[in-house]
## 1
Amino acid sequence: MKTSNSIAATMYHLSKNPEKQEFLFKELKKILPNKNDVVTVEKLENMKYLKACIKESMRISSIAVGTMRGSTKDIVIGNYRIPKDVNIMMPHLMIGMTEEHMIMPNKYLPERWLQHRPADADGIGSAEDFDKSTAVKPHPFVFVPFGFGPRMCVGRRFAELEMHTLLAKMIRNFKLEYNHGEMKFESKILHRPVCPLKFKLTDRAE
Ligand code: HEM
């Protein structure tokens, strides 16, 4: 369920940001030249822009609102005294959307997650968006959609493989649109879309 909601959120953000979807299509066309090419582990390794798009979607529409930890003894963290048996919440969704921690938090900029500046000649990613969004590196704990430490998500690798494979095949072969305004999300224990996923998929010519 968490995986399917994260996939739906990525489909939505790519639909609403067609120029980013086109960058992704170019990357996938390069790695999967034929529409029925099989996605392999080696090929997935090179899909850097795909992974950046998924990360950016999970930042804006994190399925987990946050993670909780209970203190087992009195501790002090960052000058705050936390007594034994108090629950502490790490609110992923909120932290990743604050200007204090993220440059232009309301913009969908997969480039912020790329290791290298996109080369204009490749046509995969915007060098300008890379420069703007990576001017200050975010704190490593600002983005932890699968949690952290001994109790982090054990299904992470399964979920990532499923998201990468499905989205690689889908965006390689279809152009995505969402023509129903803004998608509605519900924030309870999980943050997830609560409206019909009425995407329009148009077959790519080649
Ligand atoms: C995009 C998909 C997914 C996301 C975003 C996600 C996220 C999370 C998060 C945030 C936690 C809490 C981690 C913490 O407290 O530090 C968690 C725990 C967990 N997840 Fe996932 N998850 C996903 C998919 C899956 C899948 C596919 C499986 C199973 C195959 C799975 C199994 C689990 C289990 C068993 C735990 C509890 C681990 C523990 O308490 O020791 N998750 N997940």
## 2
Amino acid sequence: MRVRRLKQILLFGPYMVFLIALIMCVVLFGMVMRQNRRIEAMEEEIGHISMNQDSLIEEVSSVTSSVDELGSAVGAISNELSLVDIGAYEKGTQQGHARVAWPRKVYLTFDDGPSANTEKILDILDEYGVKGNFFVVGTENAELRKMYKRIVDEGHALCAHSYTHKYSEIYSSVDAFTEDLDRLYSLLYEVTGTEPVAYRFPGGSSNSVSKIPMSEFIKVLDRRGIRYYDWNVVSGDATNPMLPAERIVENSLSELSEFEEAMILFHDLSNKTSTVEALPEIIEALQESDIPIAVIDDTTMTIQHYINTKSK
Ligand SMILES: [Zn+2]
């Protein structure tokens, strides 16, 4: 009986071992498979997370491009706004002071001083930081003579306009003209220590008062190397009765656009108070248009009536 059992054990033993090993294999295989599934699930989850990340990045970039679009839209709008501004500005200048866009330079010239207004004119020019051109006559008044010096000291152009300003005397002969010229030049040199920058004929080089051709007087200036200037814009302040300041402003600015360099004629005379009154507005209009206000120098264009009338 024992032997039979032993035989049975010996016979079935290997089967049992094989069976156990098989069962263990199946169990292990199942475990491996389960682990694999878990790994796959985890991988899927990771993929999902990175997909989320990708879509997040996409969203951020779309927001950024929206911001960019918004920026360029703002740029376009501000461009249009500035165009609107320019339009309004041009309209404003056309309706107001006239279009003063062209002149490269404007010369403010004051004839016939010094006078009771010279200090006021100089103060206004100083206040706006601009320079003027003073075509002065001779005076015996010691107080007024100080103005020649102040004009030079403050950087304005001191120019000559005859000593007496009396047409009948100055234009009576070449000698009389020369004598008057010398008298004024000596006085100005004596007071300021400098020569005048330029000359302006009383009544201009195109005046019809002189019986002697103006070319004779121009020769005198040429021999001395003196340049003369007339004007191309008239403020109208010479008229009687005196023009109101608004009209002087209007006259001074309305024709400027016709000239590359504009030389405006004003008068520095005691009774010309509206000229003083008009000056700040004229300067402000020029400064707002960025037009330089200049002093006469070697680079100044030839603004001469005599030559202009001859060439026509
Ligand atoms: Zn004059």
## 3
Amino acid sequence: MLLRPYRSTDAESILAIYGPVVAESSATFELEVPPLGDFKERLARIAERFPFWVAEDACGELLGYAYGTTHRERVAYQWAVETSVYVAPGAHRQGVGRALYSALLSSLAERGFVWAYGVITLPNDASVALHAACGYESFATYTAAGQKFGRWCDVHWMRYALNEARPGMAEPSFRGL
Ligand SMILES: CC(C)(COP(=O)(O)OP(=O)(O)OC[C@H]1O[C@@H](n2cnc3c(N)ncnc32)[C@H](O)[C@@H]1OP(=O)(O)O)[C@@H](O)C(=O)NCCC(=O)NCCS
């Protein structure tokens, strides 16, 4: 497995992983699979400001991806990021998610962020277990936070301390890989 930064040519393979999660699961609260053009623009905006890692196999097939995004828009929140990870179903449980998160958390720490938040719609045992395996701790659950497929879902929050929150800390660096 090779880890490398996101390239715009990855968008279609990423949508092939993400689309079925939108259509079939509540792991994301997005309700409609986005058109490729819009999705590509969204990924470009993320990769411009945050680390965005992809994993591929020896044949160049995309196995998964992980990135950071804005936690909340108000500037005082800028030291916190939300992290996301998706792995192709055929590559689950082979260490891809762990490798992607390890690279992502190092990049975020290096840029001076303080908190990485994992935001997980329940039930998602694999995601909760992956976050815990990567050092995240659970700290909150929003009950009935949203509805997908006509069913109310709880959303579980986990956090990982990237850096100590020190007084007078410099702003984090917003840049891609
Ligand atoms: C969650 C997800 C990213 C995990 O990726 P993965 O590559 O399969 O995970 P890894 O193989 O790196 O697992 C690392 C550790 O996480 C835990 N883990 C991962 N999947 C697990 C599962 N299904 N059950 C229990 N523990 C699991 C284990 O501790 C595992 O270590 P081990 O295999 O040595 O026991 C993957 O299941 C996925 O893409 N799910 C669909 C999308 C999704 O839910 N994304 C998260 C949105 S919040």
